[in-house]
Structure formats: structure tokens, C-alpha cells
């Protein structure tokens, strides 16, 4: 299931006494194509159309990137901790993280790390030190099974997937 924790179609609105607007539709289904790509079709709003609040049909083609090894280890974690929903994941030598952030200057945090010569190096970071604390480097061995809770960087994370377990 897709969870949109960052929505570029809506500006960030700091917490107020008014409830947030309802989520805009973003509904899609996926179909495997003969060449290995995936066709996503669905409905979502288009802010550039003359009626930006009306859902319109869309199609997207997703192509798989080649991996560095036949079966790299992967781990994905989710946290509903302070400051918003967060995801961190690692596939092989790449780690990504994203989190909604209703504080400071940023309305989201994002972080990418790559392993080079055995060490993790930060490729980019949106949100500075707060992002580094919120979206930690994933230890080599974390969580033994799906659904397990693990503590990293003052947050509780749920193991969504771990191919090493």
C-alpha cells in the first residue's frame, strides 16, 4: 500500500485550530508489462489543469534499475514517532529516508546515504541535523522479523521487511 507522507501538490500548513483539508485522490493500479516495466494507471488531481481539484486519469511507466548484485540485502522500517511518519530503507549499498516534519523551516526531511569503500557517506540531506537524527543510518543487523519493533535514534521503528532475517 502506498502511503503519501509528502504531497507536493499541497503546501505545508502549520498546525492551526482549523482541520487540514481532506486528502486529494491519488488512486492507482499496477500492471506488469512484457519488458519488465510496470504500468501504473489511476486517478489524481493535476494542479496545472484548469480544474485543479478534479481528479483526472493518468498513466506512468516505472522501470526497474539494475542492482549491484543478484540479491542485495534489503531492510525497510516505518516509525510513527514524534514529528510525523517516517520511513527508512536500505537496498544493497543505498539507504534512503523520508519523514513528514511539522517543525522548523522544513515540512519534510529526506536523506540518502551510499556505502563507499565500506563506510556510509551522506549523498544529500534535506533538514540538516534534525533530519540526521530523525532518519538514522540503519545498522547492519536490525530486526529479526517483520513486525518487530526496534529502537533507533529515540524513535520506535517497525520492521516492514528484512531479507537477512
- Radius of gyration from the CA trace? 18 Å
Structural class: mainly beta
- Largest sheet, spatial ordering of strands: 8-7-6-5-4-10-9
Mass-distribution shape: globular
**Chain oligomer state:** single chain
N-to-C CA distance: 22 Å
- The amount of helix comes to under 10%
Number of strands: 10
Contiguous runs where pLDDT drops below 50 for at least 5 residues: none
Q: State which percent range the strand residues make up.
A: 35-45%
N-to-C series of helices and strands: EEEEEEEEHEE
Largest sheet: 7 strands, antiparallel
Tell me, rounded to a whole number, the average pLDDT: 79
DSSP helical segment count: 1
How would you describe what is shown here?
The structure is a single chain. This protein is mainly beta and 165 residues long. 4% of the residues lie in helices and 43% in strands. It is built from one helix and ten strands, in the order ββββββββαββ. The strands form two sheets. A seven-stranded antiparallel beta sheet has the order 8-7-6-5-4-10-9, covered by helices on one side. Strands 1-2-3 form a three-stranded antiparallel beta sheet, with no helix packed on it.
